[in-house]
């Protein structure tokens, strides 16, 4: 059994909504306050919670009241190295420290990409001050206390309108949220509400920790936690956390377990389409979350040359992938079939090299009571971006990222 949560975000997600939902699920208030007090910022805020109604539904609302001096400073300006120091010196549980650092690194990468600066140089004004540290670390404390092993998240509403920020008015979704969605290929939709529904802090939590986005997994629900937002909306402004377990089908091989999951395979052959249109179609399919897309050269009827287009995706993504194929290509039919695939557990960690941050993909295999790391690979795009920026060979950045990860984890 794998203990998991599913974030259902009908009116978006924010850090305080995550924290409120976890308190609603039973995160002890005294434990939360005690652990947060180990951070060196306890004098900057007061934390309180209350039960509120949103469109007739009862939920937990968390308030982070900044102290007067902090308010006058307009959120004390902090950069990534200072936030890292605050978190790493607090004596938090190991998973809490690791998750919190990953979330802030993901946020720094997104903000840095928006402003065209290195992640460690990002000035966390809207998202990196006292309240965001409390939201992020508090959320990680709650997930760790509940023993969560896996997190899933729904598609996210785009919202709309304008919001006042440090640099003036910004369109919603704000640039950092859009970049976080782009980095994880998050499915989004318009629910008709023209407000800021997804904050950078909420987006960073979800895009860093979620295994995947979309419909809920097949799970046994144990409890639902409701975290209230601050907006008065036509829909209940509530984040719903489904707490439960997943009974995974596993093959046991010499005391090791390999997880299996169901995937959908879409296939169609095409012989009358410009190759440039095929390239664009592949980009569109990957953008909506297809797991893999590839083509093969084939011979078709009447000796015509063509291609076989194959898409591998989660079952809940099959419909949108089919819509893209019909819209962008000349095919008249798509074959669909289900398969089982064996997968290694995967997680993303972010390390910092002398040239900048690089995400590391770590693949592991369950082995009785422990996990055995099978493969470690830096993200290609992160290495490529740093290589272009600093005029270094890609292979040097790639090797430096590997060396840094091994050194940080003391693995020979």
Automatic annotation (TrEMBL):
Cite the entry's keywords alphabetically: Lyase, Nickel
User: Belongs to which family?
Assistant: Belongs to the LarC family.
Native species of this protein? Stanieria cyanosphaera (strain ATCC 29371 / PCC 7437)
A Pfam family hit: Ni_insertion
Q: What is this protein called?
A: Putative nickel insertion protein
Classification via HAMAP family? LarC (MF_01074)
Question: Keyword Lyase: yes or no?
Answer: yes
Check the record and name the InterPro entries matching this protein: Ni_insertion
Q: What GO MF terms are annotated? A: lyase activity; nickel cation binding
NCBIfam families in UniProt: nickel pincer cofactor biosynthesis protein LarC
């Amino acid at each position: 059994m794998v203990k998991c949560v599913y974030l259902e975000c009908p009116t978006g997600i924010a850090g305080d909504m995550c924290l409120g939902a976890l308190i609603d699920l039973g995160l002890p208030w005294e434990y939360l306050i005690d652990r947060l007090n180990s951070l060196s910022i306890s004098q900057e805020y007061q934390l309180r919670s209350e039960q509120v109604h949103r469109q007739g539904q009862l939920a937990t609302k968390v308030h982070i009241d900044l102290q007067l001096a902090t308010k006058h400073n307009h959120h004390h300006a902090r950069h990534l190295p200072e936030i890292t120091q605050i978190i790493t010196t607090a004596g938090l549980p190991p998973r809490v420290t690791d998750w919190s650092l990953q979330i802030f690194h993901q946020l720094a990468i997104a903000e840095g990409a928006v402003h065209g600066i290195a992640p460690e140089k990002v000035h966390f004004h809207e998202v990196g001050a006292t309240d965001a540290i409390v939201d992020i670390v508090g959320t990680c404390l709650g997930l760790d206390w509940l023993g969560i092993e896996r997190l899933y998240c729904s598609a996210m509403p785009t919202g709309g309108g304008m919001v006042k920020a440090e640099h003036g008015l910004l369109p919603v979704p704000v640039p950092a949220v859009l970049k976080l969605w782009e980095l994880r290929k998050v499915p989004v939709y318009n629910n008709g509400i023209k407000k800021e529904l997804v904050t950078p802090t909420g987006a960073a939590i979800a895009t860093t920790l979620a295994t995947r986005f979309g419909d809920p997994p097949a799970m046994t629900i144990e409890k639902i936690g409701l975290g209230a937002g601050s907006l008065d909306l036509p829909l209940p402004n509530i984040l719903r956390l489904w707490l439960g377990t997943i009974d995974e089908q596993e093959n046991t091989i010499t005391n090791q377990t390999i997880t299996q999951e169901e995937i959908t395979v879409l296939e169609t052959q095409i012989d009358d389409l410009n190759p440039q249109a095929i390239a664009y179609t592949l980009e569109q399919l990957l953008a909506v979350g297809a797991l893999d897309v590839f083509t093969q050269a084939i011979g078709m009827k009447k000796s015509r040359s063509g291609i076989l287009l194959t898409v591998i995706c989660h079952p809940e993504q099959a419909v949108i992938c089919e819509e893209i194929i019909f819209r962008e290509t000349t095919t008249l039919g798509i074959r669909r079939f289900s398969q089982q695939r064996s997968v290694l557990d995967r997680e993303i960690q972010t390390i910092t090299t002398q040239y900048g941050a690089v995400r590391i993909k770590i693949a592991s295999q369950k082995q009785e009571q422990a996990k055995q790391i099978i493969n470690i690979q830096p993200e290609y795009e992160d290495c490529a971006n740093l290589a272009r920026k600093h005029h270094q060979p890609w292979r040097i950045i790639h090797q430096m990222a590997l060396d840094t990860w091994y050194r940080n984890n003391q693995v020979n």
